[in-house]
Specification:
heterodimer, A: 317 residues, alpha/beta, Rossmann fold, 2 domains, five-stranded mixed beta sheet, 13 helices, globular, B: 273 residues, five-stranded parallel beta sheet, 11 helices
């Protein structure tokens, strides 16, 4: 997703002189290219996220659209007070882009994982939050974010994400033919219709959900898959309808199960019926297990097998 | 009105707000009266109180935002909002809170938490450069505030981006909430520190409004400007001048008697407009 985002951003900057890029310390080649193309609109702040975010807030007040881009964990944790006070409280027009969301920084360890920031950011007034499911969804998300007046946080992955919006992939996994990379602010995307269990996820972990759905299908369990490219502001009706249909809901996220989309969906379903409900993700723990991304997901039971086991256990009850 | 008389008027306004409303940080506001007076009445800042959003205006960022009462007094006297509104501070429904919010005409940025203003100033200054505007950005920080590391991130970037349109003023009164800056976490050799960051640093008597205005009007430096204003917290009220434990405290009834006696005012003087 990193490379896709960077390509899309430079294209957007070429078409809109109001967009400026605020960088901390990112890959040399990308930064050099951005500086070469747009020298007057690219500012490198170094390893100083707080200052970068505070400056971006004020910069936006002068009619510009600053895109603040660096690692997800450092942006949302270290600079949180600056996001809250300078961007949100001042209702600025800043696009904050965190790269390496969830466990995508893999074996660099828990300091580099961003596994609490949906909880921390989705409660901030005046901040929308968007998460692409796979690289092709980045362009429409960035486009809508730039069009939108007001601040947005975009939580990206990093690399090696499965592209779920390719025709062959859609056919192979029998996803809805209208499951496109399009992005409509607020709308959950029903990627696959089903009758027995609703599985809701955000970000590229949806590829694990789709793989789990394929496994479930072989045992006669028909899963409905909902992608949340918008965390906030979210239209909740599709989620409620699906839960009321299947009576069985699983949330899956590279995040703590409290406060993330597990918490979000629980809030939405309060008072809407009686459901079996499980949340998959990190359960009040950091991910100190080492390995590649798939290994980490498996260790915390949020890979395809973990989702499959959870669904079959719930349905057999 | 002479500039020093304007400063006296602002100081009296602040004392009146405190007396009438019990709101605000009295000593922190009194500490920066001459700094604020020089900015708004010393021919330093370009502004139009009838058009607070005038595009070519200079900007003032109150990073030591607890001194809001001082800024409100200056803004009211400069005509940004009615003078009588000062005495609604912190009352139900008032625009004038303990820290300045965007509802207040003349306030550029809602501040409150310390260590933000210089970064915000960097953003305004960068935007001015991109727009080829000669607008200047004045940022007032406290001294205890400089214990926040974000100020030094910001200072690095002011110099790195060559933001000669920033004037950073430090209200150096040596006191913070819990005692002296020197005892809690010293920022000594402040001039040397900021000079090393790439600023042209001047020091001044922070209660000499004329000297401050002269320094703020220096437009010839090829480096960003920092002014260390040596001040006295609570300046103008002997009872509370340079005294710890007065950071956010409101004077009690007997203390007001003593204060009014010291500054030669009666209850009627101060209760009137």
């Amino acid at each position: 997703m990193k490379k896709s985002f960077e390509d899309v951003l430079l294209t957007q900057m070429a078409g809109n002189e109001k967009i400026a890029l605020f960088l901390a310390d990112e890959d040399h080649d990308f930064c050099e290219k951005a500086e070469e193309l747009f020298s007057r609109r690219v500012f490198r702040f170094g390893i100083a996220e707080c200052n970068m975010v505070g400056a971006a807030a004020a910069f936006s007040k002068e009619g510009f659209i600053p895109v603040v881009y660096t690692f997800d964990s450092f942006l949302s944790y270290r600079a949180y007070e600056f996001i809250r006070n300078d961007i949100c409280l001042n209702d600025c027009n800043v696009k904050i882009v965190g790269m390496g969301g969830g466990l995508r920084m893999n074996n660099l360890g828990a300091t580099h994982h961003a596994t609490e920031n949906i909880a921390a950011l989705r409660v901030l007034p005046n901040l929308a939050m968007f998460v692409p499911a796979s690289p092709r969804q980045i362009a429409p998300i960035l486009e809508k974010s730039i069009e939108r007046t007001g601040s947005v946080y975009i939580r990206l992955g990093k690399a090696f994400e499965t592209e779920i919006f390719e025709d062959t992939y859609i056919k192979e996994h029998r996803l809805n033919t209208n499951a496109q990379a399009e992005f409509c602010v607020g709308k959950p995307q029903i990627i696959k219709n089903g009758e027995d269990v609703t599985i809701i996820s955000t970000g590229n972990i949806i590829a694990e959900v789709i793989a789990a759905s394929d496994m479930l299908e072989k045992t006669g369990i028909d899963a409905e898959i909902i992608n949340l490219p918008t965390i906030k502001p979210l239209e909740v009706e599709a989620i409620i309808r699906s839960a009321q249909k299947t009576k069985c809901v699983i949330t899956v996220e590279e995040h703590q199960i409290s406060g993330g989309i597990g918490g979000l969906v629980a809030e939405i379903l309060i008072g809407k019926g009686s459901f079996s409900f499980e949340r998959l993700g990190l359960n009040d723990t950091f991910c100190n297990y080492l390995g590649w991304h798939k290994d980490l997901l498996a260790y915390h039971c949020m890979d395809a097998a973990g989702i499959y086991n959870c669904a079959t256990r719930m349905i057999r009850k | 009105m002479e500039l020093h008389q304007r400063a006296d008027q602002i100081r009296r306004d602040i004392i009146k707000i405190s007396y009438k409303t019990g709101a605000g940080h009295l000593t922190s506001s009194l500490s920066c009266v001459e700094i604020l007076t020089a900015l708004y009445f010393g021919g330093v800042m370009r502004y139009d109180s009838n058009n607070p959003n005038m595009p070519e205006r200079d900007k003032f960022i109150l990073s030591k935002a607890h001194a809001a009462m001082g800024v409100y007094a200056v803004l009211a006297r400069a005509g940004f909002f009615p003078y009588d509104e000062l005495f609604t501070m912190c009352e139900k429904g008032s625009r004038l809170g303990g820290h300045p919010a965007l509802d207040v005409p003349g306030i550029e940025h809602h501040t409150g938490a310390l260590g933000h203003g210089l970064s915000v100033s960097v953003g305004f200054a960068l935007a001015a450069k991109v727009k080829n505007s000669d607008s200047r950005i004045f940022c007032l920080t406290g001294d205890g505030e400089l214990q926040e590391g974000s100020n030094w991130e910001a200072a690095l970037s002011v110099a790195h981006f060559k933001l000669t349109n920033i004037i950073w003023i430090i209200d150096y009164n040596h006191l913070q909430l819990g005692g002296t800056v020197e005892h809690i976490m010293d920022i000594a050799l402040l001039r040397e520190k900021i000079t090393a960051f790439g600023f042209t640093v001047s020091e001044a008597d922070g209660h000499n409004v004329y000297a401050l205005a002269d320094l703020m009007n220096n437009k010839t430096s090829d480096r960003p400007i920092a002014i260390i204003a040596n001040t006295i917290k609570g300046k103008g009220i002997p009872l509370i001048e340079n005294s710890p434990n007065w950071h956010g405290r409101k004077p009690g009834k007997q203390e007001w008697e003593a204060i009014l006696h010291q500054i030669k005012l009666t209850h009627d003087d101060i209760a009137g407009a």
